[in-house]
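Quick look at the format.
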Amino acid sequence: MISLAAGTVRDAGPAQVLQAASTAGYDAAGLRLDPASVSLAEAARLRRRADDSGLTVLDVEVVRLRPDSHLDDQRRLLDLAGMLGARFLLTVSEHRDEGATAADLTRLHEAARGHSTRIALEFMRFTGVPTLAAALALLDGNGLADAVVVVDALHLHRAGEPPEDLAAVPAERIGYVQLCDAPAHPPRGLDALSWEARHDRLAPGEGELPLGRLLAQVGPAVPLSVEVQSDRLTARSAPVARAGRLLADTRRVLASAAGPGRSTV
């Protein structure tokens, strides 16, 4: 399964994201929703649109764990994700304290009990969960059996963790993989890393990330989300054209890394 990440077409609303994904030929899409402004009725309409287009909603974004966040808002986003049939609710931590992250994540995990949508924790060097190892320790150390980790190719590399580290991770702990590309060497400083991740990613195959090695470590059943947040590409192309170009780039990377069972379509 190849999904169009919401951040790749951040200049499009949820309905336009689904249109871009369907027109370009993706299997799925991710949606970024504001629980304060999107109703359950609107989520139901989006679900029908996705179903009519043959699309799965892979993930809904984003829960930000931080001192001023509220569980009620997170529950509303969970309800929206459930209405959409989303597989995952993308979650990041902005806490500086590991204990606060663990407490908030545990509460969210409990709130998701009984939902079909699973909590997907994303690690990033510039957040409260900086590495794959830290993310796994949080989930395992707090008994969060139903939660998974999101593996972003950029964040894994910037954390200094080689793709081969994934060999020791139980398959059920990896929810999905986010694909993009970047130069091998990182910019200096956490602020620069944050800017790169949100504004300056490269298309798969344009940079020097070890994407082939990453794909070799995850099974063919693991969904791939094309997340290329790029000011340059956003300025140069409309959402549908951008989505199509990036899907073609992704398929070329998959073809070059193809092994038994890994489809390029």
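Next, a different chain entirely:
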Amino acid sequence: MNICGILVHAQPTNFDAVRERLLSVNGIEVHGMSDEGRVVITLEEDDENAMADALHKVQTLEGVISASMIYHHNEDEV
């Protein structure tokens, strides 16, 4: 299981639409949004390739200015 924390900078004028687009990406949870357009999300995926694909999808969503991974944890299943 891979879990990462991502800081998203989004256009603050379209928060609701950006939030819905983020939630459309499999494995995403939105944890907080600021008035300035910062959004804290987590992403959970089983493998690193799927995680990289999901991060790229977030980075290219309409209304997203940038998305940076700020934390990553990989835990092998027993």
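The chain has one domain: 2-68.

See the schema section for token definitions.
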